[in-house]
């Protein structure tokens, strides 16, 4: 790759973008005008953000006791709150006048819905009298015989669907709580018990953090989020213009016909998009930070903020600028790859919206109170980087150093994969020069049936994967949780046969000319690959077992989910072994392999990348299992099975691997001390788990079996591999081989 060509393309694209007035206005001029206007508007609106008094109706005032008093001259007693708290409750005191409780409730409901009152307090008849009787019995009664149930309780009527009513209810509850404390103190005096007995100590909390650390903690949640959002937004429109825009202007063909390689073109465009992404993020970050600092400073002077936010730390800006290049590179590569698929600028905006919807949850996850940087979160793209920035801004450098390597590694891998995807998009002529077409459902359906290929297209494979995930999502709500073993059998068979295997088989019959070839239901290229797949499953099972335990350690399962899984595990350990093997081992091995390593993998191989198809199929396979921890482990297992299917050219070894893996998990769950005593060879393979429940693989057995598994995998790698036409073409593009030799 010639970096001179990359530089020329970068300067060309940068010059063209700088000549675009709309781009300059959106990136530079608009933030300078927008944020000051927003800040000024916020200060103007601040006057409306004051607390309004709640209208409260008090019914049954004649039943209130005189000592201590709740209402004095139509207001809350001065002993129950300061002037501001009393003014926030606008009381209307009424007598019950012999009304029934049901009539009072009906009238309160009507008045609250009409907006006349925000809440209603009702004191039942004889409230004061029975409260006095309760107090008079205290000196002469034993403590065990005294009960407050004989005193009727006041009732607060409100409408929680209305925010004003909820606020009124909270204010009334606080006043009644203080009034109750006054009554308790009076009762203690009657019994000649010191008031301090009801409150022997006060809880005093001392904040040990400095003012600078508190400000840093606030800014650490805001600034990384702003940086991420604007880096992504800044990459959107330049990427659309450099790909879909050039298609519309007819200049893309001229660029592609130049001596520059496709990878050089992508790198030039990528640097341009990343430049605008970083410029947009820095400019918006600077203006947003300045305006936010100005606004919060003014509000703090006006007494509108309980915390002194102050200016962001200088080191925070340093860490944000340091993290910006990889962030911009990641978002720019993703935006460029997606924009290359679009046929117009309008279509490109539609395609880039899913990227925003997928990225926002990863950006907002670090803002949750319970989210802290650890090994599990550091392995999540975008989330780990934001948490690392939070930790650095807060000054916890040693904590950040512990997880800096996994965060940097994950971010680097994501950037490389995104760039590789963008290069592949530009190498694919069918992606770059797709023709615009109107949607005609009937014509499209006729095209699917009439122009069928031997195997499905990549789009049909993706459609099948998404369809299976949607079916699985709704089945979780439609199918009740099984409680007995017959229900478990019925639910599992329905899920496997009707909701996983059947859609894939129907699509293979309707959308392809050779369903058996599509589902890879052919003889393996080599007869020894079938027993080799079974041996590989046995040898790699310890590695998958320890991997599953590591994932559950990184991402602990919620106790409620563990309780549900334990019910299923109990059935696996107690029901007849042959039934469990058939249900847990054989049914998924057949049904899931037909869908994922059959139809979906066959279609995704048309993308031209063997490993890309295997990994993407494994992602669908993992997501279909629902539980996050199970999905991660299952996706890795699916990658191994996909490699076996691709190398052998048949689905049968993959089914056998799947069956052996699941069956071994069932057998391992049934190992008990009695079984180990009956089979002494198991002592060399398994050892008791730390918690005393079940058995795990011993370290020596794990090392030996994994070594044997690596040997089998290397043997599979040495087998001849029959590439598809798309894979041969992609290899030619990657290695710059003349296309004539590939076609020949």
Explained architecture:
The strands form three sheets. A four-stranded mixed β-sheet has the order 4-1-5-6, with helices on both faces. The chain has a two-stranded antiparallel sheet with strand order 2-3. A two-stranded antiparallel ribbon has the order 7-8. The chain is globular and about 95 Å long. The protein is mainly α and 744 residues long. The model is unreliable at 737-744 (pLDDT under 50). It folds into three domains: 3-38 and 210-432, no CATH class; 54-197, no CATH class; 458-743, no CATH class. The chain is built from 29 helices and eight strands.
Output the strand order for the largest sheet.
4-1-5-6
Oligomer: single chain
Percent of residues in helices: 55-70%
Mean pLDDT value: 81
Query: How many domains is the backbone divided into?
Result: 3
- Number of strand elements: 8
Which of globular, elongated, flat, extended, rod-shaped describes the shape?
globular
Sum this structure up briefly.
This protein is 68% helix and 4% strand.
Features:
single chain, 744 residues, disordered C terminus, 4-stranded mixed β-sheet, mainly alpha, 29 helices
């Amino acid at each position: 790759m010639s970096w001179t060509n990359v530089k020329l393309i970068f300067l060309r694209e940068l010059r063209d973008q700088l000549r675009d007035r709309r781009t300059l206005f959106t990136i530079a001029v608009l933030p300078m005008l927008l944020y000051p206007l927003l800040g000024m508007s916020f200060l103007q609106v601040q006057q409306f953000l004051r607390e309004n008094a709640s209208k409260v109706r008090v019914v049954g005032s004649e039943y209130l006791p005189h000592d201590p008093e709740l209402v004095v001259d139509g207001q809350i007693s001065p002993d129950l709150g300061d002037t501001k708290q009393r003014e926030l409750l606008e009381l209307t005191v009424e007598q019950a006048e012999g009304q029934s409780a049901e009539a009072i409730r009906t009238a309160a409901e009507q008045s609250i819905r009409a907006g006349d009152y925000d809440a209603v307090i009702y004191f039942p008849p004889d409230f004061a009298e029975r409260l006095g009787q309760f107090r008079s019995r205290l000196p002469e009664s034993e403590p065990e015989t005294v009960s407050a149930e004989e005193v009727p309780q006041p009732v607060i009527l409100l409408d929680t669907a209305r925010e004003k009513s909820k606020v009124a209810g909270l204010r009334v509850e606080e006043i009644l709580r203080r009034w109750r404390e006054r009554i308790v103190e009076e009762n203690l005096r009657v019994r000649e018990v010191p008031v301090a007995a009801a409150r022997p100590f006060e809880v005093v909390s001392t904040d040990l953090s400095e003012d600078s650390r508190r400000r840093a903690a606030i800014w650490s949640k805001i600034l990384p989020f702003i940086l991420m959002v604007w880096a992504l937004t800044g990459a959107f429109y330049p990427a659309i213009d450099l790909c879909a825009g050039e298609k519309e202007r007819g200049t893309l063909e001229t660029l592609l016909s130049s001596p520059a390689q496709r990878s050089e073109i992508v790198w030039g465009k990528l640097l341009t998009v990343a430049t605008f992404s970083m410029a947009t993020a820095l400019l918006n970050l600077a203006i947003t930070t300045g305006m936010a600092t100005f606004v919060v400073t003014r509000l703090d002077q006006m007494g509108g903020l309980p915390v002194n936010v102050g200016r962001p730390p200088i080191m925070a800006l340093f860490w944000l600028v340091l993290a910006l290049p990889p962030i911009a590179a990641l978002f720019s590569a993703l935006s460029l790859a997606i924009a290359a698929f679009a046929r117009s600028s309008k279509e490109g905006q539609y395609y880039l919206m899913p990227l925003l919807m997928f990225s926002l949850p990863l950006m907002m996850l670090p803002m949750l109170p319970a989210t802290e940087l650890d090994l599990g979160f550091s392995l999540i793209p975008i989330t780990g980087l934001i948490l690392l920035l939070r930790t650095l801004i807060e000054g916890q450098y040693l904590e950040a150093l512990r997880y800096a390597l996994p965060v940097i590694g994950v971010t680097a891998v994501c950037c490389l994969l995104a760039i590789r995807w963008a290069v592949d998009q530009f190498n694919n002529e069918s992606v770059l020069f797709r023709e615009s077409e109107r949607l005609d459902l009937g014509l499209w359906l006729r095209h699917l049936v009439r122009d069928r290929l031997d195997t499905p297209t990549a789009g049909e494979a993706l459609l099948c994967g998404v369809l299976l995930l949607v079916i699985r999502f709704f089945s979780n709500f439609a199918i009740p949780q099984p409680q007995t073993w017959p229900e478990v059998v019925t639910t599992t068979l329905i899920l496997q046969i009707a909701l996983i295997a059947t859609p894939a088989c129907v699509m293979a019959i309707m959308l392809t000319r050779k369903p058996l070839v599509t589902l890879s239901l052919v003889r393996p290229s080599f007869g020894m690959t079938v027993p080799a797949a079974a041996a590989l499953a046995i040898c790699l099972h310890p590695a998958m077992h320890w991997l599953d335990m590591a994932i559950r350690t990184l991402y602990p399962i919620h106790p409620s989910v563990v309780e549900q899984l334990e019910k299923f595990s109990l059935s696996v350990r107690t029901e007849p072994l042959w039934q469990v093997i058939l249900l847990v081992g054989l049914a998924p091995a057949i049904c899931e392999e037909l869908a994922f390593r059959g139809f979906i993998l066959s279609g995704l191989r048309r993308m031209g990348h063997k490993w890309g198809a295997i990994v993407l199929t494994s992602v669908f396979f993992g997501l279909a299992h629902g539980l996050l921890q199970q999905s991660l482990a299952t996706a890795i297992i699916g990658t191994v099975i996909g490699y076996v299917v691709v190398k052998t050219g048949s689905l049968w070894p993959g089914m056998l691997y799947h069956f052996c893996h699941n069956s071994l998990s069932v057998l391992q769950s049934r190992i008990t001390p009695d079984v180990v005593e009956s089979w002494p060879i198991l002592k060399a393979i398994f050892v008791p788990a730390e918690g005393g429940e079940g058995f795990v693989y011993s370290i020596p057995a794990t090392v030996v079996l994994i070594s044997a598994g690596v040997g089998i995998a290397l043997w599979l790698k040495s087998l001849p591999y029959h590439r598809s036409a798309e894979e041969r073409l992609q290899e030619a593009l990657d290695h710059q081989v003349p296309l004539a030799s590939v076609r020949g």
